[in-house]
Amino acid sequence: MSKSDDLKKQAALRALELVVSGMRLGLGTGSTAKHFVAGLGEKCAAGLDVKCVPTSEETRKQAEGLNIPLSNLDELGGLDLTVDGADEMDAGLTLIKGGGAALLREKIVAAASTRMIVIADESKLTERLGAFPLPVEVNPFAHETTAQMICEAISTNGLSGDVTLRGDDNPIMTDGGHYIYDCALGHIEDASSLSEALLNVPGVVEHGLFLGLATGAIIASDTGLKEFGEI
Ligand code: 5RP
């Protein structure tokens, strides 16, 4: 296991300590969340009683393979805890997500959770968001026109940078049947204003800025685990 993967696993194992029987859980997507789901599978095999909602088909497959009891959000009506990774996080718990193209379901699930705990290695922690290109999920219909409007929304926020279709000539399709444009902005000063401008573009389904959704974070580094917010 690489050093970074080991750190991801450490963060995931700490998050597993927060899980108790009876909980309704949101399961994140990505290489860090994968460690959490793997550990959860072991706990379920040992008798833990939880109901889970996966944030992607990839996570669903992993959870099904481990016999983790799955349900859906509409049936459960809400979640007690979601544990998910992030592409970037600042000290105020604002996130960029969507590197794994699962941002739409991740955001729906996080918004329906009383608690959302981010698990990550220290490389994800940043003073200023935006070095990671911001993913924006769009409807495939007239997506190039939508991309042009995304560029205008970015520009009215005083920002600039390449806006590229993920997958180029062979666009990747999200679980919801949408495309992703990655916006290489370098830095984001006002995430809230940018969020509003992007959501005002017809054709934009969601974007990867998670504002006020994470309630806590467990960040693993060489020197140990750091916790942010409420754990
Ligand atoms: C998927 C995500 C992931 O949480 C994010 O990309 C982090 O992934 P990893 O844990 O593999 O670094 O937002 O859409």
Automatic annotation (TrEMBL):
One GO term under biological process is: pentose-phosphate shunt, non-oxidative branch
| Residues that bind substrate | T29, G30, S31, T32, D84, G85, A86, D87, K97, G98, G99, G100, K124
**UniProt enzyme class:** isomerase
Per the UniProt record, which EC number(s) apply here? 5.3.1.6
Q: Which UniProt keywords apply?
A: Isomerase
Record CDD domains: RPI_A
SUPFAM superfamilies cross-referenced by the UniProt entry: D-ribose-5-phosphate isomerase (RpiA), lid domain (SSF75445), NagB/RpiA/CoA transferase-like (SSF100950)
| Assembly and oligomerization | Homodimer.
Family recorded in the similarity comment: Belongs to the ribose 5-phosphate isomerase family.
Note the NCBIfam families from the entry: PRK00702.1, rpiA
Name of the protein? Ribose-5-phosphate isomerase A
Give the originating organism. Answer: Candidatus Micropelagius thuwalensis
